[in-house]
Write a structure and sequence with these properties.
Helices cover 47% and strands 18% of the residues. The chain is an alpha/beta fold and 283 residues long. It has 3 domains: 4-113, 3-Layer(aba) Sandwich (Cobalt-precorrin-4 Transmethylase, domain 1); 116-223, Methyltransferase, Cobalt-precorrin-4 Transmethylase, Domain 2; 226-281, no CATH class. The strands form 2 sheets. It has a 5-stranded parallel β-sheet with strand order 3-2-4-1-5, with helices on both faces. α10 crosses α11 (255-266). The longest helix has 13 residues, at 61-73. It starts with a strand and ends with a helix. Bound molecules: S-adenosylmethionine. S-adenosylmethionine binds next to α5, β7, β8 and β10.
Length: 283
Amino acid sequence: MSGTLSLCATPIGNLGDISERVLETLSLADLIAAEDTRNSLKLLNHFGIKTPMTSYHEYNKFEKAETLIEKLKAGQNIALITDAGTPAISDPGEVLVRRCREEGITVTSLPGPCALITALTLSGLNTRRFVFEGFLPSEKKERREVLDALKTEERTIILYEAPHHLKKTLKELSEVLGNRRIVFCRELTKKFEEAVERTVDEAIAFYEENEPRGEYVLVVEGRNPEERMKEEREEFASLSVEEHMAKYLAEGMEKKEAMKKVAADRGVSKREIYAILSAGSQK
Ligand code: SAM
């Protein structure tokens, strides 16, 4: 019988956040696959865990996944840990999980610390609907595409960012999203934990004077729906009733439904729209 891959969430700063179940799983596993074995050795030593470790990181994630799959198939139980937080979130864990699922190997996840959730809960921004983007792509074109897509995003946006990229990212956020509110979260779960709200412009000025330090989670407010409605109203005002109808019909709406929507958009009754359209068709 195959073994199990256990995704073990580890602390993002405060060792007290490790769970009993994670400690037990790490102790009983045949092997621990870790993103940075030197870093994880400190964690394992702290808790007196002697399980052998092997490396599983960004630069060996595809080949090493196959080696780990063989071991799992041979019946070994493997625990996966990353540098910090929940494996498979913005780290190579995702690749190994996918391969295990393809091979029918059991995967279980032991929940625990995760920087994005910790930051979101601290932010005071809308937590009901949010989108996690992780690190923005480093390639210029891809990065711009992601940012452009975020322009109209109304849900709260969560980004991971390294200190040496923060100023550049803020400049781009200012260009694409405008002067939004952002909660800058750093040193989460540690002694000097911070969750400071600044507008993009305030942050640009602040980081001109103060060098960014530590890893950041940026919790960015989504676009205000009223802004979208204002733009839509302006767009509708520039259309004739016929053009407005044609827009919805082209989107595949039924005539009756389109008329109702046009009336609502223009703040008039359906009867009025019907009258305008009938007058137009009799000309
Ligand atoms: N898998 C991890 C998780 O569950 O959040 C994330 C791994 S990702 C490689 C590392 C990023 O997480 C950092 O660059 C930073 O954006 C964020 N992060 C991790 N620990 C943090 C902390 N204590 N305070 C603020 N951000 C943190």
